[in-house]
Amino acid sequence: MAGLAEQISSEPVQTGGVKRRRIWQIAAQLDEEDRAAFIAALNDPNTPARSIIRALAKRDISLSESVISIYRSGGYGSTL
After folding, report:
1. Would you state the pLDDT for residue 4?
2. Whole-number Å distance between alpha carbons of 32 and 54
3. Which residues contact 61 (CB under 8 A, 6 or more apart)?
4. Residue 41 CB coordination number (10 Å)
5. Which of 17, 57, 65, 78 has the fewest CB atoms within 10 Å distance of its CB?
6. Residue 40 half-sphere exposure toward CB, CA atoms < 13 A
7. pLDDT attached to residue 40
8. What is the C-alpha to C-alpha distance for residues 13 and 33, in angstroms, rounded to an integer?
9. Residue 28 contacts residue 80 (beta carbons within 8 Å)
10. Which of 9, 11, 27, 16 is nearest to 71 (CA)?
11. How many CB atoms lie within 10 A of CB 12?
């Protein structure tokens, strides 16, 4: 049986579409410690979105500032 993160990321998304799935995809590809740090940073409004984007870019992972902004404003429904 596939891992929970893989199952979740493969489920169709009712709201948020591709952009919402992108956050789940990134979280799923990180190890446990990095995933926790990524989620904590997303959920912390005091962490600049640009800091998250630059840190991910150093790992060749792309994410747009608008996705983070929409996520933080609740535009994709519940948070991670």
Report:
1. 74
2. 20
3. 26, 29
4. 17
5. 78
6. 6
7. 93
8. 26
9. no
10. 16
11. 6
Write out the H or E segment, with its range, that includes residue 58.
Answer: none
Helices 17-29, 32-43: crossing angle, 10 deg rounding: 140
Burial 51-78, CB ≥16 within 10 A → b, else e? ebbebbeeeeeebeeebbebbbeeebee
Select from 33, 64, 60 the least CA-distant residue to 72: 64
pLDDT digits (tens, 9 = 90+) for 52-76: 999 999 999 999 999 999 888 887 7
Terminal-to-terminal C-alpha distance of the chain:
22
Mean pLDDT of 21-39: 90
pLDDT-derived band at 37, boundaries 50, 70, 90: very high
